Amino acid sequence: MIRLDPLPSFNFYIALIEDADNPLKTAAAVGQAFVLGGFSEASGLESEIQIQEYAAGGINDRVFRFPGRAAYPNITLSRGVGFSEDLYLWHEGFLKGEGKRRNGLIFLANERRVPIKAWTFENGIPVKWSGPALNAASSAAAVEKLEIAHEKLTLTLSPGKALGALAGAIGI
């Protein structure tokens, strides 16, 4: 029997693929995502089709609309500041002109933490890193954010298909 209950949004994993040309590193990154998790929020899982309008001469009761290019907003990842500096170092690589694009996987899991849906993004660039807001009068956790511009976002219904899509995107 298929359950139609909505999935909770708090069970998710994120994997950033450091070396898209190396299948072993891809598998390791996916494995780490399940072990480490670490992100408290992910936003920007959106796609939009831009519309081209055409006003035909002599037809005044409408403007024709045609689908154009796809557009994808930046993905923003948030997590508590810990000992790892990996997000900042990826961003810093681009600041120095030495950065490498990364592909990524975002898995949404059910209550048992089994991945049900997955999104892949391609050719990510860390365009903005934000450090924590520091305030001695607050007991809130220190949070860092990374904003990633990318070329394409694909929804895959199963983790196996997501891995296949990523492998195809990186030419494995």
Description:
It holds the Pfam family Phage_T4_gp19. GO terms for molecular function: structural molecule activity. It comes from Cereibacter azotoformans. It is a single chain. It is built from three helices and nine strands; from the N terminus they run βαββββαββββα. Strands 1, 2, 5, 6, 7, 8 and 9 form a seven-stranded antiparallel β-sheet that branches. A two-stranded antiparallel ribbon has the order 3-4. The protein has helices spanning 23-36, 86-95, 159-170; strands spanning 12-17, 39-43, 48-54, 64-71, 75-80, 102-109, 115-130, 143-149, 152-156. Helix content is 21%, strand content 40%. It is an alpha+beta fold and 172 residues long. The protein has a single domain (12-46, 73-170), classed as Pnp Oxidase, Chain A (Roll).
